[in-house]
Specification:
The complex is a heterotrimer.
Chain A lengths: L2 H4 L1 H28 L16 H7 L2 H34 L4 H8 L2 H4 L2 H12 L10 H27 L1 H10 L4 H29 L3 H7 L6 H7 L5 H29 L1
Helix pairs in contact in A: 2-13, 3-13, 4-8, 4-10, 4-12, 7-11, 8-10, 8-11, 9-10, 10-13
Chain B lengths: L4 H33 L1 E2 L2 E2 L2 H8 L1 H32 L4 H14 L5 H11 L4 H8 L11 H20 L8 H9 L4 H29 L3 H7 L6 H10 L6 H27 L7
Antiparallel strand pairs in B: 1-2
Helix pairs in contact in B: 1-12, 2-12, 3-7, 3-9, 4-7, 5-10, 7-9, 8-9, 9-12, 11-12
Chain C lengths: L3 E10 L2 E11 L4 E5 L6 H9 L6 E6 L2 E2 L10 E4 L11 H11 L4 H14 L15 H13 L5 E5 L7 H18 L2 E6 L2 H7 L2 E6 L2 E6 L1 H6 L4 H6 L4 E3 L1 H8 L6 E4 L4 E4 L4 E10 L3 E8 L2 E8 L12 E6 L4 E4 L1
Parallel strand pairs in C: 3-8, 3-9, 6-7, 7-8
Antiparallel strand pairs in C: 1-2, 1-4, 4-5, 9-10, 11-12, 12-18, 13-17, 14-15, 14-17, 15-16
The chains are: A mainly alpha, B mainly alpha, C alpha+beta.
């Protein structure tokens, strides 16, 4: 315990940080408590504790299906992202560096254009006709690809700049490797950590996505968030167990990303 | 430095999948919305926009959107500044722990957050109960503008903290020491040096928070079952609701929202460019 | 009674000792320097006097007043930092006026005093410029002006010239000393550069590993180092152990010995025989490496004429007078 913490400014800062932590914790704590309560209505504390809501949740086939479908869509979107974005990044950074400026503007689009707005176009364009995708997981995978794009692009770009792509490729090629060999044997292994982190963070973000899921697909391919919303009228305890389960899952992912990040340094 | 032409052709080919997906899922819908916002049954016109701005109902949606975004961003950033500033000055264990926690709670938005707030601050919520019993308030309506502002502020805080924390790197410790030796106490330092230097970062973050709140749909939808009058809800109701389907009007409203967001993004880019010579 | 009195100061970070048992005094108007290598604790000691770093034990008295209960705002001490620490959102005039503003001095008087001190550092026409528009040397002069305008009782300078290039450094050195004399301001200066310390100070405190190893004026510090560290840090002493010294001087010597290179006479009729191994031209001084009686010595000779430059291999004879020798611990 350093002397700094014992005097007034140190104390103030610790108090502020703890307060911040408590503010952020409160809704979570409330939900957690609700999820293990036997009943809790119109009183400050719950009446009793139980795990039955979790048991009920994890035994519900509809929940498991929704969870699984969320996984399918998110993983699918990320696989698509990797397959599309990695070559893109490689080409931009190695062959056409000036495209990077354009790309940086393009990746602003998913931010400037909220999902609600895109949904208007998406529903009308792909609701029927040759590219009818509305109501299927395919449209979700495509949309989630655009959602993950800014994160993935920026994370891997930073990574590529840090490892100095050109120099690595040139060195490998001078030693006799073809472009393909150089990419696979030299560049990709160096991207592994950055890629993993980007994937984990994008995944947790996608897993919590609701707008596209609800507007474009809804109950026809129920993802976890849509399921959560549809269950709003069932027991609040059940919903809380659902929310906490979802959050624990996301926690695991971000914790994993954090660990990898620390490892990297 | 040029690369052999065969390589370049292959490289260009590799760009195609990206261009394809990006076009289909991002550009095309946006283009559709832009085009249809200026179309009615009678062809090209700005009728949709005049309908949107002419109707009290839609004007209210725009107004509520702006109000909720503004206030939640303001409260969010004030809390984030105070929090981030103290976060930098505590020991590393506490700092890492709370930073990681803020990181994780930034994912806690949308439907799950709405439910959590209903549990705590709904009509029968635990905190509502506590406040009522202690006599501090008579009643609290989470499903009102105020309730929404509070809920939005909650998810703005982690984002604000994460964005502002690195900005404090610009503040050098020896400025604070210098100011102290010249007679400035903590508050004077912030007023004359700390806040002015941080202002670009503060404004930039505020602008991002604004955009974040303007486009938010999930939280308000889940909290009010789509019954609160803000722009995103209005837009969605017109394409996926069961009452009226008017994609052109929806497009116009959508373009208004995009207009607001773009304005906000442009201001942010301008602020970044105006970023202080402080950065040296 | 001394103007500044530091008694038995101790500072530790956890179990690591930064400085310990530091005691010294400074008279009113004196310019003293804390000199030492990086990590010897001199900067931390300065910051402790300023009130920026707490101490574990000891007292600091300024003009009879115990500084312990006072924060840096109330100590009436001015300080110049190595990194200038100019406030980037204010121009030169506003930076300099800041201390006055904190003292609630405004308007005409503030403007007058700012102009006065800017003239002192020869930056009158730069009042409207911002820090990023100034060179390093100009920034440092603004920092100096800012710390002087409030007329502090004590001025502290923490390696203010280390970040500047050699030419500016020399110029600023003189300027700082001149201003200090004009104002009669008690000053404590910290540096690792012995030339700075020797040219600027009334007295020097040589520090090593958290302790004051030697104190005195420039001449005594330079000509009479107390131990091997001091001899190694100041000047280019030849350090010989007892055996080497005995062999060289051909009489029994029982301690380590330090010999200044410029104090060894190089000629053809001296008492010790030696041979020039190599030489370096340092501009106004030629530094020879001479081997004599099994010991290699540095010998400095003024570069007066071409005849002074002797070739390698030349046999020479050296004279080492009793004053040139210094017994060290």
């Amino acid at each position: 315990m350093s002397r700094a913490e014992l005097d007034a400014p140190g104390l103030y800062h610790r108090a502020v940080v703890w307060l911040l932590f408590l503010i952020l914790l409160l809704p979570l704590a409330g939900t957690l408590l609700y999820s293990v309560a036997t009943s809790w209505s119109a009183s400050i504390l719950p009446s009793g504790l139980t795990f039955k809501w979790y048991l009920q949740l994890w035994g519900d086939p509809r929940f498991l299906q929704a969870f699984g479908q969320s996984l399918v869509v998110c993983v699918g979107a990320l696989v698509l992202s990797v397959l599309v974005i990695l070559p893109l990044l490689f080409v931009v950074h190695y062959h056409f560096p000036r495209l990077d400026a354009l790309m940086n503007i393009l990746i602003l689009l998913p931010f400037a254009v909220p999902p609600v707005v895109s949904s208007v176009g998406l529903l009308n364009l792909y609701g029927s006709g040759p590219l009818a995708m509305v109501g299927t997981p395919w449209i979700l995978i495509g949309c989630y690809f655009t959602v993950a794009l800014p994160f993935m692009y920026r994370a891997i770009t930073n990574n590529l700049q840090a490892i100095n792509l050109r120099d690595l490729m040139d060195a490998a090629q001078l030693l006799g490797a073809s472009t393909f060999q150089a990419t696979v044997l030299v560049v990709l292994p160096n991207l592994r950590k950055g890629l993993m982190i980007a994937l984990l963070l994008s995944f947790s973000f996608l897993f919590g996505e609701f707008v596209f899921a609800n507007l474009l697909v809804g109950t026809r391919y129920e993802t976890l968030q849509v399921y959560l919303n549809n269950m709003r009228n069932s027991s609040g305890h059940f919903n809380s167990a659902l929310v906490i389960s979802y959050f624990l899952f996301v926690l695991l992912l971000t914790w994993g990303a954090n660990r990898l990040n620390k490892d990297k340094d | 430095m040029t690369t052999p032409t065969r390589g370049r052709t292959l490289a260009l080919l590799l760009l195609v999948p990206f261009a394809l997906f990006f076009f289909v899922f991002q550009i095309a819908p946006l283009a559709w919305v832009a085009i249809h916002s200026v179309q009615t049954d009678a062809g090209w016109s700005l009728d949709n926009f005049s309908k949107a701005f002419g109707s009290r109902f839609y004007r209210q949606a725009i107004q509520f959107s702006l109000e909720i975004s503004f206030w939640s961003s303001l409260f969010g950033i004030v809390i984030a500044v105070i929090g981030a500033s103290s976060l930098r000055r505590v020991d590393s264990r506490l700092r890492d722990f709370v930073s990681a926690f803020a990181n994780m709670t930034s994912n806690f938005s949308g439907v799950p957050l709405a439910f959590a707030f209903i549990i705590l601050l709904g009509f029968n919520g635990a905190i509502t109960m506590m406040l009522k019993q202690s006599g501090l308030i008579d009643d609290f309506n989470l499903y009102s503008k105020t309730g929404l502002i509070i809920t939005y502020t909650y998810f703005q805080i982690p984002l604000g903290v994460l964005l502002l924390y690195p900005a404090f790197d610009a503040l050098r410790e020896d400025w604070r020491e210098s100011a102290a030796l010249l007679g400035a106490n903590g508050w004077a330092y912030w007023r004359h040096i700390g806040l002015p230097v941080l202002t670009p970062a503060l404004l930039g973050t505020f602008v991002i928070l604004l955009a974040n709140a303007l486009g938010a749909y999930a939280t308000v939808y889940a909290l009010t079952t789509g019954n609160f009058n803000v722009l995103p809800i209005r837009i969605a109701a017109m394409v996926a609701g069961d009452i009226s389907l008017d994609p052109n009007l929806a497009s116009a409203l959508a373009m208004i929202l995009v207009g607001l967001m773009t304005l906000v993004t442009l201001v942010h880019q301008w602020l970044l460019r105006r970023s202080y010579h402080v950065a040296r | 009674m001394s103007f500044v009195s530091v008694e038995r100061l101790d500072k530790r970070y956890g179990t690591t000792e930064v400085f310990s048992d530091i005691s010294f005094t400074v008279e009113r108007g004196e310019f003293i320097t804390l000199l030492g290598p990086s990590g010897c604790g001199k900067s931390t000691l300065l910051r402790a006097i300023a009130g920026l770093t707490p101490i574990n034990a000891g007292t600091i008295l300024l003009d009879g007043q115990n500084l312990a209960p006072l924060g840096p705002q109330k100590r009436d001490i001015g300080m110049v930092f190595q990194s200038y620490a100019l406030f980037p959102n204010m121009n030169v005039e506003q930076n300099v006026a800041f201390g006055l503003r904190m003292q609630k001095v405004k308007g005409a008087e503030s403007t007058r005093r700012v102009a006065e001190v800017l003239a002192l550092v020869e930056l009158g026409e730069f009042a409207g410029r911002y820090p990023h528009q100034l060179s390093g040397g100009q920034c440092q002069r603004v920092a100096l002006a800012r710390s002087l305008v409030t007329r502090p009782r004590l001025l502290l300078l923490d390696e203010p010239l280390s970040a500047l290039d050699a030419r500016i450094r020399k110029h600023l050195r003189e300027q700082i000393r001149q201003i200090q004399r004009e104002l009669g301001l008690t000053t404590i200066f910290v540096t690792h550069d012995q030339e700075e310390a020797l040219t600027m100070s009334d007295r020097i405190f040589l520090m090593n590993k958290g302790r004051i190893v030697q104190s005195g004026d420039a001449q005594s510090l330079y000509t009479a180092p107390v131990d091997a560290f001091a001899a190694g840090f100041i000047g280019n002493y030849n350090l010989l152990d007892a055996a080497q010294a005995s062999a060289l001087l051909q009489r029994p010597i029982h301690t380590r010995v330090a010999i200044r290179p410029e104090a060894i006479e190089l000629g053809i009729d001296g008492t010790l025989d030696g041979e020039i191994r190599s030489h370096s031209l340092l501009g106004n001084v030629i530094r020879y490496r001479v081997q004599a009686h099994g010991v290699q010595l540095l010998v400095d000779v003024l570069n007066r004429t071409a005849a002074d430059l002797l070739p390698d291999g030349q046999r020479v004879s050296l004279t080492i007078g009793p004053d040139a020798l210094c017994e060290v611990a």
